[in-house]
Each structure stands twice: as C-alpha cells, then as structure tokens.
Amino acid sequence: MKVFRALGLALALVICCSATIRAEGFALNEWSARGVALSGGMIGRADDVSTLAYNAAGITQVPGTHVMGGLAFIAPLGTIVADMSAGGSKITSTKPDVWMAPHGFVSHQLNDKVWLGFASFSRFGLGNSFDSKWAGRYNMYDIGLQTISFVPTLAYKVNDTLSLSVGVEAMYAHVYRGSKVPTVTAASYPKSFDNDLQLEGNGWGVGAHLGMHMRFNDQWSMGLSYKSQVTLNLYGDVDFGQEVNNLIAKGRNLPEARDRSANTTLQLPDSIAWGLAYKPLDNLSFEVGTVFTRWSTYNALNINMGDDYSSVNNKEWRDGWNFNGSVEYKPLDWWTLRAGVAYETPVVNESYSDYMMPTNGRTVMSLGTGFAWENWTLDLAYAHLWINPVDYDNTESSGIKSAGIKGGHSENVQANIYMFSVGYTF
User: Fold this and answer.
1) Which residues contact residue 249 at a Cβ distance below 8 angstroms, ignoring those fewer than 6 apart?
2) Distance between CA 404 and CA 136 in Å, rounded?
3) How many Cβ atoms are within 10 Å of 320's Cβ, its own excluded?
4) What separation in angstroms does the CA of 316 have from each of 116, 141, 297, 349?
5) Please, what sign has the CA dihedral across residues 22, 28, 30, 31?
6) What does the alpha-carbon distance between residue 396 and residue 182 come to, in Å, rounded to a whole number?
7) Pick from 71, 154, 296, 409: CA 20 to 30 A from residue 371's CA?
8) CA dist 175 to 77, 111, 233, 237, 332, Å?
9) How would you classify the pairing of strands 335-344 and 303-304?
C-alpha cells in the first residue's frame, strides 16, 4: 500500500500544473530542486529519488520507499531588435511572465536486487510571448510547447558496483502558436489589415530510458544515462479571427482564412549524459559531467493545414553539448549547501533563426540548500541563465524578411529559475 500512496501523491503534484518554459534548444533539465542547484550534477551522484529523471539506475542506492514532488518557477525576459527595411529599428521586449514546471517521483525497493520507480517530469518545453502588434507578428507573437513524460522504470543491482535500469517513456505534448496574416478583402481593398491565426494541437509519443551506475568505492562513482528520440504526432485546429477570402493569397502562398484542421510530426532528439562524482569526505562531494543532445535530427517543423496551404519551417539545428560542474557540502546533519555551473553550446542555425527561440547557447550558475527532519526533506534552488544573442541578418525564416524587417538580433536575454522539492520516506 505504501507504494500506491506514494504514486498517487506524485501524480497529483505533477498533474496540477502544466510545464511551459524556454531553454537552450528546448530540452529541459529542471527536474528537481537539488538537480537544478547542482546544475544537473545528478548522473554520477544519483542518490535520491529524483535520479529517476537524471539516471534511474541510481535508485538502487535509495533503500525503501520514497516520494518527491515540486515545482519550478521560470521567469524569462529578453529583447528583439528588428532592423526595418524602411530605416531604423523597432525594439520589442518579451511580455513579463512566469512559467511553471512540475515534477514527481516515487521509488520502491522490492528486494536486494530489484527497484521499481515512476517519474513524471517535463523533458522538453518552451514559451515565448510578444505584443500582438509587434514588428515580428507575421512570424509569431505567442508560442508554447508543453510536454510531460510518464516513465515507469525497473532498476537492477547486478552487484555492489554495477546497477542498470530501463524505463518506458510516454510523452504527452500540447503546442500552440499565434501569428498575424496580412489580409486584403474586397471590402477593405486596397488597405490591408492583420487577421489573427491561432494554431493549437496535441498528441503523444513513446520513447525509452536506459541507465547505468557504477559505485567503485565510498569515494568514486560514475553514471551514464540515455534518453531516446520521441516522435510526436500532433493533431489540432487552425482558427482565424475572421473567415474571409484573402486577395493577397493569390500567388503568395498565404492561406485563405478558413478554419481548418492541422497536423505535424515533431521529431524530438535523443540525448546521452555522463557524470563522474568524487566524495572525499562523508559530507562533501563534487561532480563533473556532460550531456550530448542530438539536435541535428530536428531539421524542420512543417505544419500541414490542408491541400491549399502548408507551413514549411526549416531548422537544420546542430548537435549540442552541456558541460557542468557542482559541489555539495553538508555542514550539519539536517542542512546541505549546493552550487553548480554549466555551459551549453549553441544549437540554432542562424540561416533559419526565428523568434520562437531567441537563444543561442547559455551559461548557468546555480545555488541551493536542503533541509531534512525525520522522514521529510525540503530542497530549494535558484539558477540564473545568461543567454547568448541570435542574429537575424541572414535568416530565411518566413514572416521576418517578408514583413519589412531586413535583419536584427536578440539582446539581454536571460532567465531566473526558482524551485522547490518536497520529499518523504515511508
């Protein structure tokens, strides 16, 4: 009964909120407050229940039954400088907002060799919003990708050194985008106006997780974790503010403004993470690690809106690396201090850059603390992200150059992350 109560609590904590945040690429690693405070340094350590998201083989280090849940609050901000063909620049900042990303985990030890786990967290996500009248509105003014993964896991302790894990991932996704379409009707000719286009859809995909953890001795441990590609088949609807015949559409590949269904296939990349942990003292540990994400598989985002119109968006991103280091110190039995740093390489191909992702590599610094009393734990984390600018001078992305914009760049893009996790041991 303990494992079922724990599973119910974890599900409730996750389902109460949806996850929408912006990250380099749009792969996420905000899966627990401890993990964020350590900048993802949970692959080699892998010693609490949240390792189900980072490296599930590590749950063999966690005896008994454990549950954890929590929430991240992400506050991004940034500015787009659009250089206009007519001269001058228009400067627009993203709308201030706070996105939330929940997580929930439960693990249960069956015997000396076998552990069961269940994880729910957001593996991918983004959110970005501008004023609906801004200069880049024909590319987009509002976009979001929300995903949540459900991952039942089996971990097996081969011996005192080696543990292995396998999990099956079911990913649900919800996507939306708002943009404007320049429109001329018989009634408005020759003047044009902005018609609103709202696209929304959802769907499922399936993947797999594999993990390995090696505990060489009391001081050294190493982990390796693989998350497979997930192919999402998304189905939804396109709704226009006004259903009209668009005279501009003739010869311009713009849609006639008629509500319609839409679909797309989104290929999300696989990734592999490695971490090496060193524990010179019982209350002090260090970890260095890296994550390789195969973003080169994300070469296009093409949306079919019917026989008369399709949205073709080339991406052709490059593979990305995350390099991280972290330290954890426990001055008292009930109190822990944490810090981490990470750098993520650029993945966006600026030949096809758009306003959906005004990021091109980032540096992360994080701090956190943890408290323990009786069967409870509380972890808190803060991270700041410095995000590299994107150049739009050579982009071929639709809705930018065709809207009287000849180029530009993003600037002052950053984000703050505030996070908590609450855990309980049965």
Assistant:
1) 255, 256
2) 9
3) 22
4) 39, 22, 8, 6
5) positive
6) 19
7) 154
8) 21, 42, 11, 11, 45
9) unpaired
How far is the C-alpha of 394 from the C-alpha of 379, rounded, in Å?
45
The contacts of residue 147 (CB under 8 Å, 6+ apart) are 19, 122, 123, 124, 125, 171, 172, 173, 174
The sign of the dihedral angle between the CA atoms of 53, 59, 61, 67 is positive
Residues 6 or more apart whose Cβ sits within 8 Å of residue 41: 35, 275, 277, 287, 288, 289, 324, 325, 326, 340
Query: Which tens digit of pLDDT belongs to each residue from 76-129?
Result: 888 999 999 888 899 998 887 788 889 999 999 999 999 999 999 999 988 888
Residue 157's closest CA among 109, 119, 118? 109
Measured in degrees and rounded to the nearest 5, phi and psi for residue 320 equal -125, 150
Asked if the bond preceding 152 is cis, omega within 30° of 0, the reply is: no
Q: Residue 158 — φ and ψ, nearest 5°?
A: -65, -45
Closest CA to 180 of 191, 194, 193, 192: 194
Digit-coded pLDDT (tens) for 42-84: 999 999 999 999 999 999 999 999 999 999 998 888 899 999 9
Q: Which two tokens stand for residue 330?
A: 């426990």
The H-or-E segment that residue 164 falls in is strand 162-183
What is the distance, to the nearest Å, from the Cα of residue 24 to the centroid of all Cα atoms in its chain? 8
Burial of 343 (0-12, 13-18, 19+ CB in 10 A): middle
* Residue-by-residue DSSP string for 274-293: EEEEEEEETTEEEEEEEEEE
Q: How close are the terminal C-alpha atoms of the chain, in Å?
A: 11
Q: What is the pTM of this model?
A: 0.88
Nearest partner of 103 among 79, 77, 72, judged by Cα: 72
Count other C-beta atoms under 10 Å from residue 81's C-beta. Answer: 17
- Please give the structure tokens belonging to residue 206: 């399936």
Contact 34, 370 (CB under 8 A): yes
